[in-house]
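Weekly modeling sync, notes
Attendees: S.R. (lead), two postdocs, one rotation student

Agenda item 3: backlog of single-chain predictions. S.R. asked that every request posted to the team notebook include the full sequence so nobody has to chase files. The rotation student volunteered to paste the first one in as an example of the format we agreed on. Action items at the bottom.

Example entry:
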Amino acid sequence: ERVDEYYEYLKGNISRDDLWNKIPNHMINSVINKEISPKTLPEIFEKIDNELKGEEVGLVIGGPPCQAYSVAGRARKNMEDDPRNHLYKHYVKFLNRYKKKIFVFENVPGILSASNGEYLEKIFKAVKKEGYELEKQVLNAKNFNVLQDRKRVIIIGWRKDLKLQYPKFDEKEVQFEVLKHLFSDLPKLKSGQGEWNVSKYAKKTNVYLDSTGIRNGIDFTTQHIARFNNENDLEIYRIAVEKWIKENKRLNYAELPKKLIKHSNTKTFSNRFQVVNHKGISHTVVAHICADGHYYIHPDIEQNRSITVREAARIQSFPDDYFFESSRTAAFKQIGNAVPVLMAEGIANKIKEML
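Predicted structure, as returned to the notebook:
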């Protein structure tokens, strides 16, 4: 019944407040939406303790904001001065308080080389001091049936007394393609077109969409809406797609006709316009997609646009009934910062085996 009410909200038949008022209080109270800091930790711990009612915590999953460890982030800001680089200390406080059996710590590959590995060493040292063993691996979303080449550092730790080991993940390449399988059933759009709420499917589902749960039973999806682009950008998109489809080559910004070049710096980010791979899997979706879609051009030249919110969500393997609140910009940012759903599920299943 509550699922039906949620779908009524997606269709725009009831308001967000109407839906919110139907959610039981115990569910609302179990979510703590607060910044983690020395100031807020006592209150957060108190709320968690009240929810636990003496039960043991089996698992904690988290990771500090990725931008602090990204190469671009390091170029912009002094690493030591960025408070985000010290959030792992708060994470360790949770391990200290609840003595969890297992924890999962996710971050970008940049954490491996940040300050020549110094930050990672600090994290390992702090966690081992609390009585945990831990290991790290670089896992790729494409090995979890996600149609995206996305590498992430996954650290898994366990209490020393449990004598566990890092689970073995199979490295299996997906056999499906973005354009043929992931985007094929969505309505075709031009720049600036689409619906924030209901979009009816243009075609039947397929094996990939069904087996992954991306198409999960309802007859519509939402947020299949494309950015508006000016004629200059659209002309660049046409050139980029044609070069990619016909020559299997990426566009170099400096090689565009001079009338189309609007940035004086043609050396840095020469690949600022990039087409999503039509015959394979997508390159990594990052939070910058909220600023513009130039790095995620739709491979169908007839549509000539950047990808929609729903297409980006599908690349991250979100199910079609998952709705991203607030604005289009906020939705893109949430999607770019997320761990792909199928990857999270694959890791969770291994953790369940360990427990």
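Discussion: group reviewed the output briefly. The CA atoms of residues 38 and 208 lie 45 Å apart.
Action items: rotation student to repeat for the remaining queue; S.R. to check formatting next week.
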